[in-house]
Design brief:
Structural class: alpha+beta
Largest sheet: 5 strands, antiparallel
Number of strands: 8
Radius of gyration: 26 Å
Shape: flat
Order of helices and strands: HHHHEEEEEEEE
């Protein structure tokens, strides 16, 4: 999982810079907020790993570019020219190992911070955890609202409002099925679904639900389920 983009940056380098500030501020504020030295140590260790990952990513990209240049020189260059030099790679200092789930630990910690009796928005601003639009709904917290209607030819129209999301993933259950099946990711409303007909060409019961998408990844809660019957072609 990734924390909400309303307060957590979206690029690795920006996240590393954010984490460095969060670590510094949390080290000063954790006692007043009711947290332990162990909590501060966990944040510090996770921050060390984030800084390493960000620095390593830059080093790896630079090495990859250098290797690409070297490969072209040594394979496609003019014979008799200067001898290409194999590029070197210098890794940043490796931090102590940490468990998987840095972002999940951070998200849970931020939720605990906001519930602290002594927490205020001034501290939130210092920590960088105040949502950019605090009055607006966060897609992880609010289910999408959908409407569905049956159209002739066993089509089902689904309408939704994507808001700040990337769209919705729509799932259906047909007749007495116990299994939900994804019918696709959609960024624009309305959507027309072609429901397979049965051998008897009779109406089929259809249940429809949806979840928001963030960069094609389903997030948050499911919508209410809409139930309807198809209208097969005559």
């Amino acid at each position: 999982m990734v924390p909400s983009s309303r307060w957590f940056p979206t690029t690795l380098q920006d996240r590393a810079a954010w984490f460095q500030n969060f670590n510094t501020q949390f080290a000063s504020l954790h006692i007043a907020l009711g947290f332990t030295a162990g909590d501060a140590t966990t944040v510090s260790d996770d921050n060390d790993m984030m800084q390493f990952i960000a620095e390593a990513a830059v080093a790896v990209d630079a090495f990859s570019d250098a290797m690409r240049t070297f490969r072209k020189q040594v394979t496609e260059g003019t014979a008799g020219g200067p001898v290409p030099t194999v590029p070197g790679y210098t890794s940043p200092g490796t931090p102590a190992d940490v468990g998987a789930g840095i972002y999940e630990r951070l998200d849970n910690l931020v939720k605990r911070i906001r519930l602290s009796p002594t927490y205020n928005e001034e501290e939130g601003a210092l920590l960088g955890i105040v949502p950019v639009s605090p009055s607006g709904p966060v897609i992880e917290d609010v289910p999408p609202k959908i409407k569905a209607a049956a159209y002739p030819g066993s089509q089902v129209q689904v309408k939704f409002i994507k808001g700040d999301s990337s769209g919705v993933v729509i799932e259906t259950k047909l007749d007495n099925s116990e299994t939900w099946n994804s019918v696709g990711n959609y960024s624009n409303s309305p959507v027309f679904l072609n429901i397979p007909t049965n051998p008897e060409n009779l109406p089929r019961a259809v249940q429809v639900r949806a979840r928001y998408l963030e960069h094609n990844t389903p997030v948050g809660q499911y919508s209410d389920i809409v139930v309807l019957s198809t209208l097969p072609a005559a």
